[in-house]
Structure formats: structure tokens, C-alpha cells
Amino acid sequence: MNTNQIPNLLPFQGEVSFYESFFSVEESDVLLQQLYEEIPWKQEPIRIFGKEVMQPRLTAWAGDLDKAYAYSGITMQPIDWTPALRIIKDRIDPDDRFTNVLLNLYRDGQDAMGWHRDNEKILGTNPVVASVSLGASRIFQFRHYTDKKLVRSVELTHGSLLLMQGETQHYWEHRIPRTTQSTEPRINLTFRTLYG
Ligand SMILES: O=C(O)CCC(=O)C(=O)O
Ligand SMILES: [Fe+2]
């Protein structure tokens, strides 16, 4: 992927590029519907400060079947690539660098994801994360890990691709805040490489 002409959304200490219409509207409509139906979406509990709470969204983990994914006190067992996932992966990852994808289904604006970094050891030192969004537009925010007042925002639209790389996961947290604006579902796919 050639990212040379794309501006960096972060001012320093990381690289984030955004491709608004990576997939056409027609293609995105079909992929959204297909993923909605073919993925075994589940609401999973996570542990936060020792307490078990349900995640405010549905999730799934797909790709390399040898690679379970452990985060926030849960371990997700992978499902195989589905037809829609293969179509998306072939388009964003022709060199076959990513081993797996984490899927999130935000049922409406009340579903969200809190501040976090994608910095699990298994992702290596400078993880490359490719994030595909389908369905309702949602605001995606970055905030600097030590200067929490330093925030950058981008609207993740239907068919968009956001690429996080370099030192991003060391210095910046990200989240999808709740909103009263959006009532339609949104599916997000974050492609990752798991080492080992
Ligand atoms: O839904 C999104 O755009 C963000 C997902 C995310 O940050 C993650 O899966 O780690
Ligand atoms: Fe993330």
C-alpha cells in the first residue's frame, strides 16, 4: 500500500493514515450485510479492575486458527476466514501480512469502545493495524498517552480504511465514544499480525 501522499492524522510519535472511500458504497453495502449474517456475533464479558462486565458491543475473532487472542482477561478462539472477510483481506492486504482480524459490531450509538492501545506483546513492537469500517459513521478519537488533553478525531465512514502504524500504539490511545446521534449498526474490522 502506498501511503506517501496521505497526511498523518497524528502530530508526532505515530503514523495514522485515513482512506475515506477505500471500498465503494455499493461494495460496502453488500459486505456489511454479508458480515452481519455470516459472523457468529457474541457479547463477551471482560475483566476491568478485577470485575467482570459485559462489553458494550458484539465481537468475533477470525483468521489463523492457531492464534487465540487474549486481552482484558478473556481469550477468544478464532473462526476461519468467511467469504466476506476474504474479499476484504485480499483488497487491503495483497501481500498477506495480517494473520487475524478482530471484529466489532456496534448495534447502535450506545455501543462503544473505551480508551485503549493495541499493544499486546503478541502484536510485536510497532504493530500495524488496518481498520475497516462499514455501516453507520462513528467518531474515532486518539489521545496522547501521557498528555491526555491532546486529542485528534476522525469520522470513520462506510467503506473507510484507517491504518495505524509506527509508534502509534506506544504513545496514543484510541476509542469509539458513545453517541446519541447514531442508531444504525456499524461493523469494524481490525486486521492484525500475531507473531509466534
Ligand atoms: O471500532 C473501531 O473503529 C475501533 C476498534 C478498535 O480499536 C479495536 O478493535 O481495537
Ligand atoms: Fe483498538
From TrEMBL:
SUPFAM superfamilies: Clavaminate synthase-like. Keywords: Dioxygenase, DNA damage, DNA repair, Iron, Magnesium, Metal-binding, Oxidoreductase. Pfam families: 2OG-FeII_Oxy_2. InterPro entries: AlkB-like, AlkB-like_sf, ALKBH3, Oxoglu/Fe-dep_dioxygenase_dom. Residues 97-195 form the Fe2OG dioxygenase domain. One of its GO terms (molecular function) is metal ion binding. The keyword Oxidoreductase applies. One of its GO terms (biological process) is DNA alkylation repair. Its cofactor is Fe(2+). This is Alpha-ketoglutarate-dependent dioxygenase AlkB. It comes from Siphonobacter curvatus.
